[in-house]
Amino acid sequence: MTLTLRRNRQRDLEPLAEMLTDEEIPLLNPSAKVPFDEMEWQRKWLGEAQDVSFYLEDDDGRDVGFFALREGVGPEVRHLTYVYLTEDARGGAAAELTERVEEAALALDALVLTLKVEVDNAPAFNAYLSAGYEEMSRRQGMAMMRLDLEDRPAA
């Protein structure tokens, strides 16, 4: 499966709501209401003007993933949040997912990508390591990771 990046310019969260099950909402955001509340996400979780979100589409044009990039310390740093892939898109898609995230960050003129990942989520943690992220610190079961984009080609 090839994943295609689609920027969510209208901040439309209905496709995300359609992809998520109630059981998956706490995995994506433990503080969010269940069931999915589009207004809560627009206001509270993706409400900053600098927040940019993206959908990932499969070969048939179906939405199978979502992620957001928040502005970090200045516009040259983007922080990856709310990464989600549907169950049928998960097997073997880690490398492509990290490539699409990098593509999106470069399109936003980012020089650095950061993220937090649960250290006991071995598939995600290892995917980020394989993509070149370095672990900066660990706290409360979470690893803070960083990827320098400066030497990477623009999308």
From TrEMBL:
Stored InterPro entries: Acyl_CoA_acyltransferase, GNAT_dom
Pfam family, one: Acetyltransf_1
Keywords for the protein's UniProt record, in alphabetical order: Transferase
UniProt xrefs under Gene3D superfamilies: 3.40.630.30
Boundaries of every N-acetyltransferase domain copy: 3-150
GO molecular function: acyltransferase activity, transferring groups other than amino-acyl groups
The protein, known as: Protein N-acetyltransferase, RimJ/RimL family
